[in-house]
Amino acid sequence: MRRHMQVRHCVIPAAGLGTRFLPATKALPKELLPVLDRPVLQWGVEEAVAAGVDTMVVVTSRGKELLAAHFDAAPELERTLEARGKLDSLEAVRRATRLASFAYVYQPEPLGLGDAVRCAAAVVGDRPFGCLLPDDLSWGSKPVLAQLVDAHRELATPILALTRVPRERISRFGCAMVAESRGRLHRVTAVVEKPAPEDAPSDLAIMGRYVLTPAVMEALVAIGPGAGGEIQLTDGIGAVIGSTAVWGLEFEGELLDVGTLEGWLQTLVRAAAEHPGYGPALRRAMAGVSG
Ligand code: G1P
After folding, report:
1. Residue 108: left (phi > 0), alpha (psi -120 to 50), or beta?
2. Looking at the domain assignment, is residue 272 inside a domain?
């Protein structure tokens, strides 16, 4: 019998140093870089909320206290906005606080993504949980995490977000070997972190959205370093294949990269271009750019 429990927590790894954005991220956490009117991390939180998650477990590190400040109340700012009648801004400020409950856990050392996720074990407890890497924004159609939660409701197994990439790009991602398929769902038979293109078992890349189970968390707590000398989330998932089924979903819509300066710029321009309020200003600005 399938035992399905509601996905209530979303683990959001946000402990990295943001070295791809220096010096912009010397003091500012990279997750607080804006895309339009809100920081990257808020886009991730809103995606998790849309998937029915009520508690965000943000994995953070020393010096990134501003992450929590963004989702906390700001009484002075709120009083001032209220007194000045800036009610739209007041609502926007309060909305971030009311989106969800937040728990913050520290990753003491940068030992890898799998280590970051296992730092959330005590908060998540014995339940399935979402995991969302804020380096990508879900764009178009139904938010990606909600698609995975739907699949989890049906299958009650770990669910990985998969997308096909050209062979030469697979070494930037975890890669899934799959067997039987049911439409966009594929049963995963093996996973390998960042394989060389010639060793990759498929062109299916594991993207930064997951629904994971207590068995994966237990495996993560037990494993040692893998690719790059880091504790790999992919290895924790691989460790449960065999004792439990794992499925991957070729999701609909897109994940847009905001984890590199180039990707962030492209995402910003795309988001602005598609926004009814900012689109015209962007096109006017672009018309003035030569070349
Ligand atoms: C991580 C995971 C990798 C996954 C990728 C998605 O890698 O380890 O399996 O494909 O996220 O973005 P990272 O981008 O942290 O190197």
Report:
1. alpha
2. yes
Kindly report, residue by residue over 31-73, the tens digit of the pLDDT. Answer: 999 999 999 999 999 999 999 999 999 999 999 999 999 999 9
2 located within any domain: no
Nearest CA to ligand 1 atom 13: 173
Tell me, yes or no, whether 192 and 150 share the same domain.
yes
Specify burial of residue 30 (Cβ count, 10 A radius: 0-12, 13-18, 19+).
Answer: buried
Q: Are residues 288 and 190 located together in one domain of the fold?
A: no
Residue span of the structural domain in which 275 resides = 263-291
Distance in angstroms between the alpha carbons of the first and the last residue of the chain? 62
User: Is the same domain home to 274 and 178?
Assistant: no
Q: Which atom of ligand 1 is nearest to the CA of 114?
A: 8
235 vs 220: CA distance, rounded Å? 8
